[in-house]
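hey m, so remember when u said the tokens were messed up on ur end? i reran from scratch. heres the input so u can diff it against urs
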Amino acid sequence: MWGPAPRSPRTLLDLLGRDIAALHDVFPRGGGSNNWAVAGTKTASGKPLLANDPHLGPTAPPPWHLAHLRAPGWEVMGASLVGAPSFPIGHNGFAAWGVTAGLTDNTDLFLETLGPDGASVREADGSFTPCTRVREVIRVKGRPDVVEEVLETPRGPVITPLLDGIPEAVSLRAVWLDPLPADGFLGAMKARSFADFRRPFARWPLLPLNVVYADAGGTVGYQLIGQVPRRKGGHGLLPRPADHPDSGWEPEHVPFEEMPHLSGPAAGSVATANGAPHQLPGDPFLGLDFVDGYRTAVIREELAGRDGWDAAAFAELQQSVRSKPWEEVRAAVLSLTPDDPDAREALALLRDWDGRVAADSAAAAVYELAVVELCTRVAKAKAPNGWAVALGATGLDADGHNLFADRRVGHLVRLVNDQPDGWFARPWADEVADVLAGVVRRLRREYGPGPAYWGWGHLRPLRLGHPLFGKHKLLGPAFNLGPVPHGGDQNTIAQGACRPLDPLGVPQNIPNLRAVFDLADLGRSTFVLAGGQSGNPLSPHFADQLPPWQAGEAITPPWAQDQVIREAKEVLRLIPGGPS
């Protein structure tokens, strides 16, 4: 046999675990989206307002589809994910609601020890339990069928190929693999109170979500939904030996009534942006995959800072590119006194910067590239073998990326402020100054001689790619949209996150949809898509909402039936029993 001897999965996981442990606070995982609501005590109309802007990948057409359904006894308008039988964002004439990713941990991996027969696994008492073999036949057009045999352990399916001579495999245990009843938005769309709205989500085993609610009666509310397991031991961060006495899950999940929620006019305002929910000692463990709380903090500060909110002000807040991390680290960075003229130029730009990650801001470009470079140096210092993985390289998704890097900034801010000894060979001040100088030299070399050429949104413009034809040499230009300048980063309300290994690449998360609901008159609720309703590039509705989306504007679809009839451009009638 040529080459080094293969490492066992346990050895590889141990090595990865040590690197991840060193970087856990630097590069936690995350997601996107914002939603918030305020009670009538803080609005100009005296009725609640609710806003939602979910963040997903930039696609043309966007993943959301605006629709209006009317049926005997109920009616709903809002945004549905294409192909899904519900409205995660919408209103029913009385209540409005919106969602963000909840990021609770509902999936675990286990290290299994296979028996000599290769079809059983060891349990905590040392015995071996037979597994089920499931034969999956995948039919491929024009080719022979592909047959996969899946080994099902008592925890779940084995998801790693079995290696000759190695007795371990990794199995998957997940809430979403269990046959559980599903209701949620299917029933909640008819709600006439927050209690009615909450009740169906006790049967929601799907994607964890933060749901924010407001109704015309004056109630605002919040509910974290999605089944969460109760673990016998551990926290689900890394694969756990399946034969350990406290491995596995309890038979029942966290009870719905123990999931975080609140409601009532006294709530004043509620806001979520993928951060950790407020919990008290003794509350159930929900996971550690939540993002830094910067977006949530900005939303709550802005909501608390004024009264008299209206829909236009909510729409303006959705456009905010205020950088909370910069506010926290600004004093430490501007206290530097480097000799390097390029570092001094960077500091001069940052000193005059208003802290907004605007598309035309050169200082924002200096800040963003400095953050990425400093994160890279921090990673290399503590994980010399796995730094690229910690920054997002290598993954199981189609693009080969992971989410380790999605929460890198919060810990970096603390490091720059605290400047712990021994992290680098030289003082933190020298390291940060060197990063700033290098960023200015790179901008000058690659983009132009001065700040007039360095606008952040022009360095990495937004392109909306078609899911199927976006990368096709001939069809791509017809189906894709852009490029257009785009500001923001992963910690601004108006998100424009990029991967740290490709900081000037196309933003990976954007607000594909913005919606604002005015409970004083839900017929005035506004929506706008990053693109358009149609998937046909020849349609006038393929990209007609992109200009207002860029400008922070929106559309107001008709709600009242007479208005719908009056404004309809085309009508398609489906008549039962008609000609086939």
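this time it looks ok to me. Residues 362-382 form the longest helix (21 residues). if urs says something different then somethings off w ur setup not the seq
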